[in-house]
Amino acid sequence: MSRIIHVYGNWKMNHLKSDVINFISKLSESVIELDCKQGVCPQSIHLSMIIEAFAKKGILVGSQNCSHEAFGAFTGDNSPQALKDIGVNFTLVGHSERRSIFNEGHEILNLKAKKALECNLDVVFCVGETLEERENNKTFDVLKEQLAEGLKGISKSDLSRVILAYEPVWAIGTGKVATPMQAEETHQFIRKFVSEELEFIAEDVFILYGGSVKPSNAKGLFEMANIDGGLVGGASLKAEDYLELCKIADRTMK
Q1: Residues 6+ apart with CB under 8 A from 235
Q2: CATH class of the domain defined by 6-13+39-239
Q3: Extents of the domains making up the chain
Q4: Each residue of 77-98: pLDDT tens digit?
Q5: Is 138 a residue whose pLDDT tops 90?
Q6: Which residues are known to be catalytic?
């Protein structure tokens, strides 16, 4: 089965207003018809700008995070219901920085994923191991736990709106990248786990790779049978690099 390749950019806590305007301008000037699925996740304060600019261009807009509740006394959090209301299409859940810096564990991530889906936001659910865990041959054990606990209780119909993103923590923002075969092996394991343990149709699951994806290595990754695109960090900050990644994804699908 040939799946659509996704190129989702996670801008993290980068860009001022002027940078966002520049990105929008450059991408708008270069927009061409592409078959790959495109999306960007700006800081929450820039979401409305991106939504307004890209709503009619087929580029999806994602939030980098959301609350585990739709509304309430959660100062500084982003309501998934309010995100949906302004036109956000999806949210990231479980990014390694949320897990490590903000100490978000399985239970809160599971609640966030469920609430986002309940509020009709699609979810990009992130999993991945540290360098120490990989060197100790614990990669698959870590992924099993993150997937089983993070997606616990989510119905099969809702799982169809969950995209998985494998992000080896040791490759995020470090310049290191898993080789295409390393990434493929792990994606294959994730697809098998989803099929056997979550009883979801494996071929219907989109699994993105995240970890220093850039134009120079994207082709090798996107050509792998079980890698359905990238959750891209630094290389998505410049419109030229982001567009090149989308073109590579598009050519790979031909």
Answers
A1: 9, 213, 214, 215, 241, 242, 245
A2: alpha beta
A3: 6-13+39-239
A4: 999 999 999 999 999 999 999 9
A5: yes
A6: 95, 167
